[in-house]
Amino acid sequence: MSSYKTAQVAAIIGIHPNTVRFYEKMELLPEIPRTKSGYRIFSDRHLTQLRFLRTAFRAEIISDGLRHEVFEIVKIAAVNDIARAYQATLQYLDHLREEKERAEEAIRITSDIIDKKDVAGKVCIYKGRSIVAQILGITTDVLRDWERNGLIEVPRDANGYKVFTENEIARLKIIRTLRNAHYSMMAILRMLNRLDQGEQNIREVIDTPYEGEDIISAADRYLTALNLAEMDAQEMLRMLSAM
């Protein structure tokens, strides 16, 4: 079995030696034996794990929840529980596809609003934040934060309960997708304001190319990232099968 020093491993993978040490500190690599002098001794298994984690972390724009899943998969593989890592990757792949469906839904909703279609009605379908947060897969604190930052205004009924109609649910789905794509509150507010003002304004280029883009472009960018992440996940499955 071949053995390697830290600098050799770093050169083979194309990263800095300090990055290798960081991965070790984060428990993303199998245990690394040392010489009597304290030098790390890497094997081909470590190289395989490094290639695996570099593939796993390649996706740039995915939600924090998905990124956490990837982190846990790499840690599981690091302790050689390959079967569990494989199952966790399958689950991660399912979650990526679910997130893609949500992003595509946000694009459809936005397109319908731009095209002046009757996307949603004013009929009350939910009362209170808890059930709405559960449906959207977020916490009530996140929902309150979106309200505080002016992303959405939710009316109340005569008894003071928050009333969520189909209009509010549609808007919240758009916000969820943009937040998962790591857009700032201010950027989302600008995009939503442009959506509210109509097609001509929403498609107009404003301040900066990234934070000033329209909702459809933003969701498209996120979809592209999710598609790339899905390809990486499939590659992860192939790599795990070969371990």
Automatic annotation (TrEMBL):
Signal peptide: none annotated. Pfam families: MerR, MerR_1. The keyword Repressor applies. GO terms for molecular function: DNA binding; DNA-binding transcription factor activity. Residues 86-113 form a coiled coil. The keyword Coiled coil applies. It comes from the Bacteria. InterPro entries: DNA-bd_dom_put_sf, MerR-type_HTH_dom, MerR_fam. Residues 3-64, 130-194 form the HTH merR-type domain. Keywords: Coiled coil, DNA-binding, Repressor, Transcription, Transcription regulation. Gene3D superfamilies: 1.10.1660.10. PANTHER family: MERR-FAMILY TRANSCRIPTIONAL REGULATOR, REDOX-CYCLING DRUG-SENSING TRANSCRIPTIONAL ACTIVATOR SOXR. This is DNA-binding transcriptional MerR regulator. It comes from Pelolinea submarina.
